[in-house]
Each structure stands twice: as C-alpha cells, then as structure tokens.
Amino acid sequence: xxxxxxxxxxxxxxxxxxxxxxxxxxxxxxxxxxxxxxxxxxxxxxxxxxxxxxxxxxxxxxxxxxxxxxxxxxxxxxxxxxxxxxxxxxxxxxxxxxxxxxxxxxxxxxxxx
Amino acid sequence: xxxxxxxxxxxxxxxxxxxxxxxxxxxxxxxxxxxxxxxxxxxxxxxxxxxxxxxxxxxxxxxxxxxxxxxxxxxxxxxxxxxxxxxxxxxxxxxxxxxxxxxxxxxxxx
Lengths: 113, 110
What we know:
Helix content of chain A: under 10%
Strand content of chain B: over 45%
Shape of chain B: globular
Strand content of chain A: over 45%
Largest sheet of chain B: 6 strands, mixed
Number of strands of chain A: 11
Order of helices and strands of chain B: EEEEEEEEEEE
Number of strands of chain B: 11
Structural class of chain B: mainly beta
Largest sheet of chain A: 7 strands, mixed
Distance between the termini of chain B: 41 Å
Oligomer: heterodimer
C-alpha cells in the first residue's frame, strides 16, 4: 500500500445512478488530485486541490463533481455518466501543490452501463 | 501546452537483457522528468526522476538520461527481471502540472 487509499476498487453503475468515489491519505500531504486513466491514452488530470481549495479544473464535465472536506479526504461524486466515462480513476497526493512527486492510490475501476 | 510522446508502446525482452524507453517533450520550460511504473491492479509508482540541471541519474539497475537540447529523455533498465514487467510512464513538468506519455508495456520473458 502506498498510503493513499481509494474505495471502492471496482464500481459498476448505470447512466442514471449517482455514486461517489473516495480517497484518503494520512501522510500529511496538502495537495490531492483526481486523474482519469483510459486505455492507450495519457493520464488525464481532472482536478487539483491544495489545502482544501480547488486550484485546477481541467474542463471536466459537470457530471463529475469533486469535494475536498479536509486535506486528508477527497471525493468524486458521479451522476448521469456516459459509457465513455468508463475508466480507471486514480487519486494522488503530494506534499504540496508545487511538489512534483505524486503518490498514487490503486484506483477505482469504473464501468458505466 | 506540453506534449509528451513516448516510444515504444510495447517492448518485449528476454530476462537479463536491457530495455530502453524514450520520450520527447515540446515545452522547453519543462524542468522535471519523472518515470512511473504501474503494475497490474495498482496505481503508478514513481521509480526515478531527473531535473533539467542533470544529464543522467542512476539508481541500481535503472538510469535516466536527459538531453535538453533535443528535448528528449530515456529510461534504461539493465539486467531485466520478470518483476520488471509493467507499464512505464514518462512525464514532464514545467510551470504547470505533470503531462504524461501514453505508456510503454514492458514484458520480460524468463
């Protein structure tokens, strides 16, 4: 384990469902990230939080809604997703926003039917 | 923005051989170049990184070289072992966030 824990590991949902992905770390890191990993594509940065404040939103559709209640927890709320949203969603953390070394969780494999 | 190209997409070697993965980047302002290894069912893990003021860095069987003039950097793995089999990602960072390559699947056959 890397110290970044993601739950659930696998999720299957219909297009009308609402679900949430959870990420937590107790490493004292202040920056947390959501990435999307699709087959044969580069890792896509979705959101960045630094000290609980969202600092980046890379043109992500509104059907993805992040939440960062504190520096240790990060959520990604999902609603009315499309089949093309099926992917591995990775959470990462770093000491600070300017720190390049990312520590990734194992991801949530999402399938949208 | 930054664009990172990674080659090859798949690399098969025999145990004990060397493996080389190459990446090019577009933004001359990029100054940090990490490499991540992703095993099946796990997230990417940082294995080595290099900054623009260094031309080469080595950690046991793994080395990374950087050519800033040509804007390319490479990962070298010597004496490959079956446990080196994984997907390897390069990335580059300048003023903004990390930009990743598409990954290289390395297969090491016993």
